[in-house]
Fold this protein.
Amino acid sequence: MRINDPKLLAGLAELGIQVRPSTNLSELTSLGIGGTTDSLRITKHESIPLLLNLLDATHIPHRFLGGGSNLLVDDGELPWVVLQLAPPEPDIVLEGTLARVDAAADLGRTVTFCAKHDLGGMEGLIGVPGTVGGALRMNAGAYGMQIGTYVREVKLYRAATRRVETLRGRQISFEYRHTSFAAGDMMLAVILELPSKPYNEILKGIRICNEKRRSSQPLGQKSAGCIFKNPPGASAGRMIDELGLKGLSVGDARVSDRHANFFVNAGCACAKDMLALIAAVRQRVQKAYGVALENEVVVWNA
Ligand code: EPU
């Protein structure tokens, strides 16, 4: 979608919003898939309610984009603009055992920055790609830990009230790959309360998790992490593997040979290929195990 209205462009400029015309979303997603649309960079959180009023008044639909690491975006010219936060400088500020982190901060860098200041707990998240905002929204987790455990406070734009608000950790429910945030909410910043631990000890944990990830996941290939959530008490990856589906392909979309719940873009896959592969695998698992796998990857259909 293109923003051409000169009045709207002037309004956006007044709010300090930078418009990037015809952004190729395949360059902003870890799968390397996605069509084109105008993208808007937000530098001041407080401008968001006004920005959304402007977009609503001119009938421009929008989507919030984080790090694009758990996202499958449709092909072609997209019918909504995307909004992205520009991280402030600095994007992580420590105060005792509290870390104030901007939603646009890189998750891995946040884990290592806190570790260097003897704040641990998040070792398992090392290697999870994406932003802190994206991790929060879906309660990212790995190796027995999840980010929600450490959330003391979240600053967000709330769709229900159309305002920037702060929620206490206990007002938010964090479950397996699920939170109580609503669809139109945008994460802006978080205060994490982290356990104090000596750097060397945290580093040991980080190395163990890195090694486990390297040996079991297709790092370095274009993917969105795990495609399906694990059904209660089972592993989607193991089920897909047991069915012999590693290597199954639709065009350049392919079930990873290393971890069957990772689907990789092995060249020039498009969304249509990836969606067809997801549907085919889901159908085979349903038939063999009677289990309907639920997407973990977020799909933005045009
Ligand atoms: N397995 C297979 N074949 C495969 C993949 C896995 O047999 O192709 C077996 C493994 O050998 C193991 C079991 O299945 O016995 C579980 O595998 P793994 O330890 O890799 O964990 P997972 O359940 O597949 C989950 C998360 C990952 C996270 C890891 C480590 C989900 C959907 N996935 O994977 O998160 O990194 O545990 O904690 O919850 C993600 O969310 O995108 C993600 C990658």
The longest strand covers residues 151-158. The longest helix spans residues 271-289. The pocket of EPU is lined by residues 142-143, 216, 225-226, 229-230, 235, 237-238, 241, 259-261, 296 (CB under 6 Å).
